[in-house]
Structure formats: structure tokens, C-alpha cells
Write a structure and sequence with these properties.
The protein is mainly alpha-helical. The chain has a domain at 1-194: MFS general substrate transporter like domains (Growth Hormone, Chain: A), CATH 1.20.1250. The protein is 81% helix and 0% strand. It has twelve helices and no strands. The chain has helices at residues 2-13, 16-21, 23-29, 34-58, 64-89, 99-117, 120-131, 137-166, 169-188, 200-205, 216-251, 254-282. Helix 1 (2-13) runs parallel beside helix 8 (137-166), helix 1 runs antiparallel to helix 9 and helix 5 (64-89) packs antiparallel against helix 6. It is globular and about 80 Å long. It starts with a helix and ends with a helix. GO terms for molecular function: carbohydrate transmembrane transporter activity; symporter activity. Pfam families: Sugar_tr. It is found in: Membrane. Residues 1-193 form the Major facilitator superfamily (MFS) profile domain.
């Protein structure tokens, strides 16, 4: 379940909803006039809708991982370019963006939105719906939707404050998370292209180097081996202890054993007195 929760969190930490919600404010801050910022927001929204068709066509041809990895690189570079331009040209109360740099910013934002639209946008919902076990599918999807809505709210509320305080650093913040989520895809996200949902466990989850360890048959084999090793170790330890004790008994005289038992009895009697005294003082 944690895997699917992470997918929903990463989908929001791309920064897509922050950019889509506050696109007019963002473009106006970059120096666009009010009408131009509104038009730029409309353009990014149209790109988001239209480019989703790319995912519809390629998702079962190229595969999920290919789209996610390519989009990760594209989103990383796009946000990095915007952060560099804002860091160099946009100041607190003025901006030095020329016509060329303004066009570059719009192109980079559209590039980021388009890469999201064919990767984390639709696949953030598709992969959990495919990989969730059938017996936990409804509950898992409910948790995924709840997580997505929660982090949509958090990012939407925090974006303006972060943008006002760290300025171009907000894009570096999202760039860092794009790098983290791309690494997550490389290491933990299996390819599910062409695999029916009914066969997902046998053909995908049990074949993955990491997720296979969480299945019952694998765990039973490992627990059986662990129990065998543990019982063998305890049996060996008991045999060695018995052998040592037997040899010690042969070498020790009865008188020495009597003195040892006497001193042990005195120690136990002393601790018993201390324990009773403490109990009485607490009453």
C-alpha cells in the first residue's frame, strides 16, 4: 500500500497543480501583462488536455516505465531552465525578461506540462489500478484517491507562500522531487505493459527483485529456513552447554558445589529482602 501512496504523493510533488492553479499569477510575476498571463495559462491548460492523447496511444506500445522515465528527464530539465532564468533575471520588484526569455519560459512550462500529461498525470492513476490485488482493489484505490486529494490541497495552499519567500527556489524544490521520483521509478516501479490484472501477481509482483519478498510463499520458504537455522543453533548451543556442565561437575568436588549453592542462596535471599522492602515502602 505504501508504494501506491508514494505514487500519489509524487504526482503532486511534480508541481503540476501548483503551476496550473496559479499560472496567471506565475506569468504575471515573470513580467507578462495581465492579458498575456491569462493567455499563457490557457495555453498550458490546452497543452495538458491535448498531450494526454500521446499517453493514450503510447502507453501500451512503449510501456509505462519508458513514459515515466522520459518524462522525468524532460520535467527535470524544463523546471531547471525556468529556475535558472528566474534566478538570473527576476528580482523582487522588477524583472529583466526580454521577449526571447519570455518565450523560452512559456515553452519550458509547456514542455513540463506536456511531459506530465503523458506520464505522471494518467499513469499515476493507471499503475495503482493495475497493480492492486483484486481482493484489496477498492480499499487501495480509496486510499490512493484520498492521498492524492490531501496532497493536492497541501501543495495548493503552500505554493504561494513558498513562491513569495524562496522565489525561483520553488522550481528547484520541484526539480529535486522530480529527480527523487524518477529514481523511484528506476528502482521500484515494474513494467505492467500487456499483463492482465488477474496475472499481475504471478507475472509482475512475484518476479520483481524487491516486491517478491512480500509474498506468502516466498516468506514461508524464508521463515522455514530461518526456523531451521535457529533450531539448529539452539540445539548446538544446548549440547555445548551440557558438555561444559558435565565436565565441570566431574572436576568439581561435592564440597565446592555445596559452597557455591550456599552463596547463591544467600544472594537470592538478599534480593528477596530488598524487593519486599521496596514493595512495603510503596504501599
Amino acid at each position: 500500500m505504501l508504494f501506491f501512496i508514494c505514487l500519489q504523493i509524487f504526482q503532486q510533488f511534480t508541481g503540476i497543480n501548483a503551476i496550473m492553479f496559479y499560472a496567471p499569477v506565475l506569468f504575471q510575476t515573470l513580467g507578462f501583462k495581465s492579458d498575456a498571463s491569462l493567455y499563457s495559462a490557457v495555453i498550458t491548460g490546452a497543452v495538458n488536455v491535448l498531450v494526454t492523447v500521446v499517453s493514450i496511444y503510447f502507453v501500451d506500445r512503449a510501456g509505462r516505465r519508458v513514459l515515466l522515465l522520459e518524462a522525468g528527464v524532460q520535467m527535470f530539465l524544463s523546471q531547471l531552465v525556468v529556475a535558472i532564468i528566474m534566478g538570473l533575471k527576476v528580482k523582487d520588484h522588477s524583472n529583466n525578461l526580454g521577449h526571447v526569455l519570455a518565450i523560452i519560459v512559456v515553452v519550458m512550462v509547456c514542455s513540463f506540462v506536456s511531459s506530465f500529461a503523458w506520464s505522471w498525470g494518467p499513469l499515476g492513476w493507471l499503475i495503482p489500478s493495475e497493480m492492486l490485488p483484486l481482493e484489496a482493489h477498492s480499499a487501495g484505490q480509496s486510499v490512493a484517491v484520498c492521498t492524492n486529494m490531501l496532497f493536492t490541497f497541501i501543495i495548493a495552499q503552500a505554493f504561494l507562500s513558498m513562491f513569495c519567500n524562496i522565489k525561483f527556489g520553488i522550481f528547484l524544490f520541484f526539480t529535486f522531487w522530480v529527480f527523487v521520483m524518477t529514481t523511484f521509478v528506476v528502482v521500484l516501479v515494474p513494467e505492467t505493459k500487456g499483463v492482465p490484472i488477474e496475472e499481475m501477481t504471478e507475472r509482475v509482483r512475484k518476479q520483481h527483485w524487491f516486491w517478491e519478498r512480500y509474498f506468502e510463499d516466498k516468506l514461508k520458504g524464508k521463515l522455514h529456513a530461518l526456523n531451521y537455522l535457529t533450531s539448529s543453533y539452539l540445539d548446538l548451543k544446548l549440547r555445548i552447554s551440557s558438555l561444559i556442565f558435565e565436565r565441570a561437575l566431574k572436576k568439581c568436588s561435592p564440597a565446592l558445589l555445596s559452597w557455591i549453592l550456599f552463596y547463591l542462596s544467600c544472594i537470592l535471599f538478599f534480593f528477596n529482602l530488598v524487593y519486599q522492602f521496596n514493595c512495603q515502602s510503596c504501599l
